[in-house]
Please model this.
Amino acid sequence: KQEVTQIPAALSVPEGENLVLNCSFTDSAIYNLQWFRQDPGKGLTSLLLIQSSQREQTSGRLNASLDKSSGRSTLYIAASQPGDSATYLCAVVDRGSTLGRLYFGRGTQLTVWP
Amino acid sequence: KAGVTQTPRYLIKTRGQQVTLSCSPISGHRSVSWYQQTPGQGLQFLFEYFSETQRNKGNFPGRFSGRQFSNSRSEMNVSTLELGDSALYLCASSPRQGANEQYFGPGTRLTVT
Model:
């Protein structure tokens, strides 16, 4: 069964810092990996989707990389801002019978203070 | 294009009652998935529907059920509510079944007293 782990569980940094959030998964036979953002009490906002054949994806100040063989992904946030404060979740889709089902990590709660 | 909508947004029910939650996917999306989010268990997959058929089911008791209509709208039902069913229920849609990017709605916050 796929298990997804995110480190650290919480992170508090001053504005302007560059950040790295980590995600690892136990079964490398994935179809894709998706990073989400969740604000308190709200739904999930998709940030980046990386297909298994890709190494990285970029959107604005966000860059996500994928190393499928080692079961790892990182989300890099450049020049962090207080508005980036949220919980960041990564999720993978396995190949096989559960295709389409997302396996989520527990998230990294990020606080960026001015 | 409008996003995924879920109704109601908040719900308070009593133990033993049943509840029905609704999800309208993004226009043109045919796959709808449901997830339960709790502080203790995180996000857990409930089920996925495509073309009015349940394609995948998570490890939840039979009290949790769902369906999808011909217009791709989906409902989930929880019967005989328990305190532990208190959670944020999230719906996600994607254009096709399978490993596409999934788009989530704002969720329904269910509180069971």
Summary: The interface with chain B takes residues 31-32, 34, 36, 41-46, 49, 89, 91, 93, 97-107 of chain A (CB under 8 Å). Chain A has a mean pLDDT of 93. The first strand of chain A starts at residue 4 and ends at 7.
